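hi! just following up on the protien thing from before. the input was this:
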Amino acid sequence: MSMSFSAPAVSLPTIEAAPGLVVRGQPRRSWRDFDLLAFDMDSTLINIECVDEIADAAGRKAEVAAITEAAMRGEITDYKDSLRRRVALLAGVPMAHLHTVWRDRLRFTPGAQALIDAAHAHGCRVLLVSGGFTFFSDRVRDALGIDFARANVLQVQGDDHTGHLTGHLIDQAWGDICDGEEKRRTVLELASLLGSHTGRCMAVGDGANDLPMMRACHDAGGWSVAFQAKPAVREQARVSIESGGLDRLLELLDD
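and the predicted 3d structure came back as:
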């Protein structure tokens, strides 16, 4: 699906609440205003783009990373096509390499645990919704104590340890690929299941495919948060964390 996004029609006042922390509109909010905190995973909750690191085993990291970067900047508007192209280049990568990426290369973003713990302490549920892969998202969910997660499933020939990637994705009950539109739909669906709505949600991301869920939140009165994001994402977010960790958001949230 090809999607395009434009900046909000109404210009909001922009302030630098603190060095590296930019806010448009209401500068402070209360945790009482929110029921759901939704995160992107790659380069948001974690320090890497997992698809690029997997591609390293196939000697195709530069090729895959170039597609990833173009998609994140919004230059490739069909995320599903871009992901299928990248996954196809992973055919033959042994599962052992994915375990190595998890163990040796993946690190949680500073402040991620503190922000998630604060959300839980205030009764706010936490969602990880990713255009990446369940191999990593399920592990990140469990390690950080996240309530819900949705991501894409890589097809594997053989088992989780001795098998290899086929270069294909597996369709799931909700659809084929978790792209920007699916992220938005997931946030809306989960908010409804929680008896809430997107005006009581925060969505945090860094790339173009995070914009649909971010726009859904801030257009309804919630918050969109860009974390060390691409320019097109920073320009459309209500909050932009441009330096420091995810816990910078706590500077803007009252009990």
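The mean pLDDT is 92.
DSSP finds nine helices and eleven strands in the chain.
cheers
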